[in-house]
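hey so u asked for the seq, here:
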Amino acid sequence: KKIILKKVLPHLDRALRIDPEALLSDTIKAKIYQIKRKYGLSDMSWGLSFSQDFNYDDNVISEGVDALEKSTNKDSYVHTSSLAGIYIWTLPFKTKIEVIPNAKLNYIYHSDRESSDIFKNDAFSYSIGIDNRIYHQLFGNKANFLFDIIYEYTAEDIAGTKSLSYDHSYLQFTLGEKLILSNNRPFNIKFSIRNYTNYSNDWNNSSYSLNLMYPLKISDSRLWILSSNFDFTTYETQTTYDNNTYLIRSDWIFPNLYSLKVRGSFALTLTDTKEQDNTRGTEFTFNPSLSISKTFKKSYKLSFIYNFTKKLSDDEATYAYERHLIGLNFEYNY
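ran it, structure tokens below
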């Protein structure tokens, strides 16, 4: 049992931390579960993580209701601090069931303290949630059913007075299925319902979304992930801003390229502005990004991040913009 605790389980845990998106991650988790059951070890685990971003944003986007998202055409340094906790509880049933409470704190601070257009985007948020996983067989393949609940509260500098107050909150329910196909590749499908409440009730809305993800293995050292998301938003009173968005995304991951983890992605989003089609048309957003990260002593990670966004709209003066964001991220996992 000492060898299991000191050698085997830490090695498997390290494999998950190095690349949690690996195609064998579910196999590794299953092996950890089998070992703990066999040797009568605790099936409860927890973790904490802290991250700090130092970014330069050459065109800060006013982060309001999505339909009102606009560029400021002003730059600023942006500091983001996050603290997250997770607890994984495996229930002692023949069918493996995981209950995963989680919580997160997030604070965003803009270094430009002169322009209210910039610092009014300062924000503090917290979220609490509970994820549930039921492992089973589907069509003769391994699968797990998920049911997630999350509540998030956000305070922002609404009036531009350098003080934060309640801006919005939402409650989201997600149902989904993760199916391990015969080629050992997981296919994910999720359906979510979100109720959004704004400090001004005029912007209350509800949305329904469908998310699909399918990883494709290129080689032992590369991973290609295809994903899509379809979101349908309806406002209670401001129905002019009802919209549907359709996103497709491709990620390329090199988990160990010269001891670095390299991830590149490209996303394309189409927004159907519905009642505003005559002025805004169908809007297109292009978003390539790149991250290069290095893990130190198992628990520390340093990442370089670059993100480019270009949005096209028939209403160019109000909704079209171009944005570059570059920065460093430090992360500690316990």
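The mean pLDDT is 87. Helices lie at 2-18, 25-38, 116-119, 277-280, 316-319.
lmk if thats what u needed
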